[in-house]
Specification:
Strand content: 5-15%
Helix content: 40-55%
Number of helices: 5
Number of strands: 3
Number of domains: 2
Shape: globular
Structural class: mainly alpha
Order of helices and strands: HEEEHHHH
Radius of gyration: 15 Å
Low-confidence stretches: none
């Protein structure tokens, strides 16, 4: 499926569900993903990449009310070249969002792979396998216990889209 078609459908779906009740919209075209609180708040994703949109929506779905008042939910971001400690911190905050993203991908029939968001880490680093296992475990827990409410609403809407790839 063409990325622009997917990203347009994701924006329309998200905005239809959350623009009024949550005063939040989803927009592509960003150089880097970012959450901007405001009137409305905006979840920005990279260019027109559907997977970036799904990932950023997953972050928004787990952010609490206080974090949704802060730029980028108040989290730090370290670009490529993170040291081992910084990469471990990244992995710890990414398990739940990436598990939710995996379920979003599943609903759309998209392949999912974890993102380490660091080109400096070797693809055979054991930390990646540990992270992948943590995400897989979290996916199983979410299947058993259910998604957070906003993630559940979005996922149900994704499953109803006729965009299967």
């Amino acid at each position: 499926m063409q990325e622009s078609i997917l990203s347009s459908a994701l924006v329309k779906t998200f905005d239809g569900l959350f623009q009024r009740p949550e005063n939040t919209i989803l927009r592509g075209g960003a150089d880097e993903p970012f959450f901007a609180p405001g009137q409305p708040s905006t979840v920005f994703f990279r260019e027109d990449f559907g997977r970036s949109a799904l990932h950023e929506v997953a972050h928004w779905c787990v952010a609490g009310a206080i974090r949704r008042r802060l730029p980028d939910y108040g989290y730090w971001y370290a670009p490529d070249g993170r040291d081992e400690r910084e990469q471990a911190a990244f992995f710890s905050v990414e398990v739940t969002p990436q598990a939710i993203e995996a379920l979003f991908c599943e609903s759309l029939g998209l392949a999912f792979t974890v993102s380490v968001d660091n080109l400096m880490i070797s693809s055979d680093d054991p930390a990646i396998q540990i992270f992948n296992e943590a995400v897989t475990t979290k996916v199983s827990l979410l299947r058993t216990n259910g998604l957070p409410p906003r993630a559940s609403r979005f996922n149900q809407a994704l499953a109803a889209l006729s965009l299967r790839v």
